[in-house]
Amino acid sequence: MSKYNSDGKGPTLRPGDRAEAIDDLITGTVTRIEGGVVTLLTDDGFPMNFEMRELVRISGETPIEISNSEISRLKDEEARSGKRRKPVPRPKERNAPQMEVDLHIEKLSQGYKRLETFEILELQLETAKRQLEFAIRKRIQKVVFIHGVGEGILKEELKYLFNRYEGVRFYDADYQKYGMGATEVYITQQA
Question: Could you give the CA distance from residue 6 to residue 57 in angstroms, rounded to a whole number?
Answer without folding.
Answer: 14
